[in-house]
Amino acid sequence: MRVTKLSRRAVVASAMAGITTAATPARAQDFTPGKPITIVAPFGPGTTNDIIARLIAQDMSVTLGHSVIVENRPGATGNIGADYVAKSRPDGHTLVIASLSNILNQATGNTTANLINDFTPVCFAGGVLYAMLVPNDLPAKTVAELVALAKQQPGKLNFSGFVGGVPQFLGEMLNRSAKIQTVMVPYKSTPDALPDLLTNRIQMWFTPLASGIPIHNNKQARMIAVAGEKRAEVLPDVPTFKELGYPDIIAEVSFYLLAPKGTPQPLVDKLYRSADKALQTAKVKESFRVQGIEEKRGGPAELSAYLNTELRRWAEIVKLSTKS
To answer: Is 4 a residue whose pLDDT tops 60?
Structure first.
């Protein structure tokens, strides 16, 4: 009988151990109670990264039943925020809303965090087109007229940019495609160049569509092209560079959420579903429409494929732009 009692105890103990073992990984796949989920915006307040993050964070909080906050960590064209997230604990509580700037950082060798090796893709979170605006005082009112003017005055027209940024490469791509010589004037950021555009000190301003819309609509300057595969829904009268004969001038800036490498897939899936749900709400859709932000959705697999493709494409563009 003594042996029988011990066997029953052993059976109960074994069963309890099994329950504990089974419960441990399940609990490990959930968010930590009381600890907020932070979306790091690697640029300052009011930038597109920041706007999108704040638009989706509130709805994600409701869906997940867990607080989702946005923290700005600007600097080094998005590197500071991205590096911070790459080094964070892979527990699903820290994300970065990255963009083309982060791809360019890697393509130019200007980063320590690797988008493929140091992050887990979560999902897309919208996109924007880049646009080119010219001053009202500039005689050229179309891209064709701008190219003709640049050919008449080689080296005399200026475009705004910052080293390693999208505007720099758009200006260089236009120079190469149109066989013209325009000169980049460096600024700390795209908005810093606006006063010089309005006074015709620079003749080309490459900016995200959301920033260019109010300037164009208020007739402070003219938007003459967008760098997308198709025209922007909010400004259907503005042509694309592609349809004007420059198919390589495409800069559709996708925004996407990344988690640190090693984040458990169940948590990644929960984050994806909550963010994707937020992108489909009427409030977010209307905010996107008004601000010229394009809808772009997709999960971890789609984002992974996009990152691999875009890293290869921009690496080639960078090589071409650095050839003498």
So the answer is: no
Rounded-to-integer distance, Cα 286 and Cα 276, Å: 15
Which tokens sit at 50? 């920041």
The region of weakest confidence among 7-11, 100-104, 299-303 is 7-11
239-293 pLDDT per residue, tens: 999 999 999 898 888 999 999 999 999 999 999 999 999 999 999 999 998 888 8
How would DSSP label each residue in 51-78?
A: HHHHHHHHHHHHHHTS-EEEEE---GGG
Tokens of 145: 């007229």
Burial environment of residue 124 by CB neighbours within 10 A (0 to 12, 13 to 18, 19 or more): buried
Q: Is the dihedral of CA 227, 119, 72, 39 positive or negative?
A: positive
The structure tokens listed for 224 are 């003459």
Q: Which two tokens stand for residue 318?
A: 């960078």
Domains of the chain: 37-126+252-322 (3.40.190.150), 129-226 (3.40.190.10)
Tell me the backbone φ, ψ of residue 244, rounded to 5 degrees: -90, 5
End-to-end Cα spacing for the chain: 91
The pLDDT, as a whole number, for residue 323 is: 63
Buried b (16+ CB within 10 A) or exposed e, 292-311: bbbebebbbeebbebbeebb
